[in-house]
Amino acid sequence: MEHPENSEEYKGLTVNKGIEQPSIVNPYLKLRKKPRRREFSVGEYVEGIVKGDVTVLSQAVTLVESVKPEHQAIAQEVIEKCLPYSGNSMRIGISGVPGAGKSTSIDVFGLHVLEKGGKLAVLAIDPSSERSKGSILGDKTRMEKLSVHPKSFIRPSPSAGSLGGVARKTRETIILCEAAGFDKIFVETVGVGQSETAVHFFLLIQLAGTGDELQGIKRGIMEMADGIVINKADGSNIEKAKLAASHFRNALHLFPAPDSGWSPKVMTYSGFYGIGIKEIWDMIYEYFAFVKANGYFEYRRNEQAKYWMYESINEHLRDSFYNNEKIISMLAAKEEEVLNGKLTSFVAAKKLLDAYFSTLK
Ligand code: GDP
Fold it and tell me: Can you give the pTM of this predicted structure?
C-alpha cells in the first residue's frame, strides 16, 4: 500500500498523492563534463619526475597512496623506473609528540639546510590526522616559510592504513622525491614505525618538564634516536631545558651502544627563536661524515633494502591468503570455532593454511 496512513484507522488524516517534483537542476544548462585530471603514462610520469616537475611528482605520490590495484600497478612501475635516479639524499626522520614543535622546527631547519643550496622535500604529518589535547590542529598553517619557498616541496604523508603500509608508502614517496632531485628529505612522524626503515638519521624532539622525559625513555623511540633535541629552550625555560638534556644524556647511557658506533647527542634549542639551529645541523652533518667513513651508511642502506624485500614478500603472501576465495569462505567460521573453544588457535590456523595451500596445487 502506498500510503498506509490513508486507511480507515487514521480518520481525519489524508495524504494526497504528491506531484512529481521538478528537477533542481536547470534542464537547459548544458552539462559540462567535470574536467578530469589527465592521466599520464608511466613514461610521462618518470620523465616529469626526473625533470623535477612537482605537479607530476604530486600526482605520482597520489598513485603511491592509492589503494586501487590499477593505480598501484602504475605506481610500482614508476617507482621501479625512478629507482636508478634515487638514493642520493640526506633523509632525516623528525619525531616528537604533538606540540613538541615539529612544524615550527622543520620550518627553521628547512630554511637552514636550504641555505647551502639543493632542494628539500618534507613528508609532513597530515595536520587533519593529528589531534592534540582535544583540539584539531588542522586549520593551523604549518611551516609557513617553507611552504612558500621555491626549493621546497611539502607533502602530507600518508597516515591511513597499517603501519607497515604507511612505512612502505613513505619509502616509495622518498624514492620519487629523490628522483625529482630533492637531496634533503625530512620525514615528520609522531611515533615509531613509519620512518626508521627509510631514513638515515632519526631526530627526536623533546620538551623539558612535561613528563616527556619519562615518556621518551620508553624503549623503542629513544633507542632509535641519533640525536635528541630539547625544544623551547628560551626565556625562563632555558634552565629546565638544560636539566632535561642532562637527564636524557644519563638515560642514553642505559641503552646499548648503537650499531652505528655513533653516540647519540643531546642538545637544547629554540625553534621559535631560532637559537641553536646551526649547532644541531653541524651535529647532523657530522653524523653523516661519521657513518660514511665507518661504512655504517652503506651497511644500513643494504639492511633497509633487504628488509623491504622481505616485507614486500610478506605483504604479497598476506594479501594472497586473505583474498583467496576459499579462505574468505572459511575464515569467519574458524574464528567462531576458536572463540567457542571448539578449536585451538593453532589448529584453526593450520586448517586454514592447509586449505590455502591446497588451492595452490
Ligand atoms: P608540533 O605539533 O610538534 O608540530 O608543534 P608546533 O610546531 O605546532 O608547536 C606547538 C606550539 O609550540 C606552537 O604554539 C609553537 O608556537 C610553540 N613552539 C614551537 N617551538 C617553540 C620554541 O622554540 N619556543 C617556544 N617558546 N614555543 C615554541
Answer: 0.80
